[in-house]
Design goal:
By secondary structure, this protein is mainly α. α8 runs antiparallel to α10.
Length: 223
């Protein structure tokens, strides 16, 4: 069946709009990739928007059309990294009722990523920026620690509803769990990179943290 002139025009416009959207997405991805590499390698202060434009192979006009300032671009990079990390940690089937295995998976991925070179660079890059630009810290907190805690709290709430755990305050319990399995590993990794903990030490801390957490939140109803 032939397409009428108005329909043909609409179809052409839709295709053009789709191509424009794809090109826009590609440019944004290119800008974020370039900015991520520059910020993580050199920090916030030494990088200029000119450097990002050259690295991304876009014009300054294009760069500023998508990001009005270096602070906005830096925030976008940090939030994007936090979202990627959170998604990587939570690659778990939502209907998994094996609480210990889910907690072990979360803890292992959490600690592994937390101790990664990428995460260390993120923390170093953002520490000196937050006092001057508090909004960056807030955005990073919401996309990172807060999102992670909320996702774990959701899982604990579901486990409570199924009778697998007795968790009266899921948000508090989620914070407790992440703090317990992390311990001082992140501070050691940040301040003493040459004294990285062994795999055996990390696993021992994670298993002890899971045991402690499950002991309390399965016996709590009998106290």
């Amino acid at each position: 069946m032939a397409i009428s002139a108005p329909r043909a025009k609409e179809a052409t416009q839709e295709k053009a709009g789709g191509r424009a959207s794809t090109q826009r997405d590609r440019k944004i991805a290119s800008i974020l990739a370039a900015a991520r590499e520059l910020f993580l390698d050199h920090g916030f202060d030494t990088i200029t928007m000119d450097m990002v434009a050259r690295q991304a192979q876009v014009s300054k006009a294009t760069l500023y059309a998508h990001f009005a300032s270096k602070e906005e671009l830096f925030t976008a990079v940090m939030v994007d990294e936090a979202n990627l990390i959170s998604a990587e940690i939570w690659q778990i089937a939502p209907d998994n009722d094996d609480v210990r295995n889910v907690l072990r998976h979360v803890a292992q991925k959490f600690v592994e990523i937390f101790l990664s070179e990428r995460a260390m660079f993120l923390r170093r890059a953002i520490v000196g920026v937050v006092p001057r630009f508090p909004s960056i810290g807030e955005a990073m907190f919401n996309a990172g620690p807060k999102a992670m805690t909320e996702r774990l709290a959701k899982f604990l709430t579901e486990a409570h509803q199924k009778g697998l755990l007795n968790v009266q305050n899921p948000a508090l319990a989620a914070n407790q769990f992440l703090s317990t399995v992390r311990g001082d590993l992140d501070i050691r990794g940040l301040l003493l990179p040459e004294l990285a903990p062994s795999r055996r030490e990390i696993d021992a801390q994670i298993e002890a943290g899971i045991d402690l957490f499950l002991h309390f939140y399965t016996l709590a109803e009998r106290r």
